[in-house]
Design a protein that fits this description.
By secondary structure, this protein is α/β, with parallel strands linked by helices. The chain contains 5 helices and 4 strands; from the N terminus they run E-H-E-H-E-E-H-H-H.
Length: about 170
């Protein structure tokens, strides 16, 4: 039996939740969960917005008065590299582990893709990967080991998706 993750995606900007974007977001989330060896079926709620929308959320939730590319709101505190295994954390009604919420600025996706010289697809997948790793306990607040560990996982996952720096896509 294949585990099923529940990944609802909503958008408050026109065109953000295209079939192509949603398919890439779901594939990326599932890939991160598989590569991080998460065996429990999970729920990750995704909101696609613009700079104004993410700015408002960033201000309200974190007290930061500026837009950003992605926000992650983990439901639990996990240890990086140690997949959650406690089924008691799963929602009784759904049987799913609620990992948390992800908010993406599609405006930032486009701007950063242009700035870094790669596709919107690669930037979107990278930000989703980055966010899911945060939901799983990874962080990069220091410039030391935690950041190196997170960056290494991001690169490995992007390579697995076929859109890493070494990929010819």
């Amino acid at each position: 039996m294949t585990k099923r993750h529940y990944i609802p995606i909503t958008a408050d900007v026109p065109g953000a939740s295209s079939e192509r974007n949603c398919a890439l977001i779901r594939k990326t989330i599932r890939t991160v969960l598989a590569l991080e060896r998460v065996a429990l079926p999970c729920e990750v709620d995704v909101l696609l917005t613009n700079d104004a929308g993410i700015h408002a959320i960033n201000l309200e939730m974190r007290g930061v008065d500026m837009p950003t590319d992605v926000l992650s709101f983990p439901e639990f505190e996990f240890t990086p590299g140690c997949p959650p295994e406690d089924a008691a954390l799963c929602d009784v009604a759904t049987g799913l582990l609620p990992l948390g919420d992800m908010v993406l600025s599609m405006e930032r996706v486009c701007a950063q893709a242009k700035e870094y010289g790669h596709s919107n697809r690669r930037e979107l997948a990278y930000l989703v990967t980055h966010s899911v790793l945060h939901l799983l306990g990874y962080d990069h607040l220091d410039e030391g080991e935690q950041k190196r560990q997170m960056r290494a996982r991001e690169e490995a996952i992007m390579e697995e998706l076929g859109i890493g720096r070494k990929a010819k896509r």
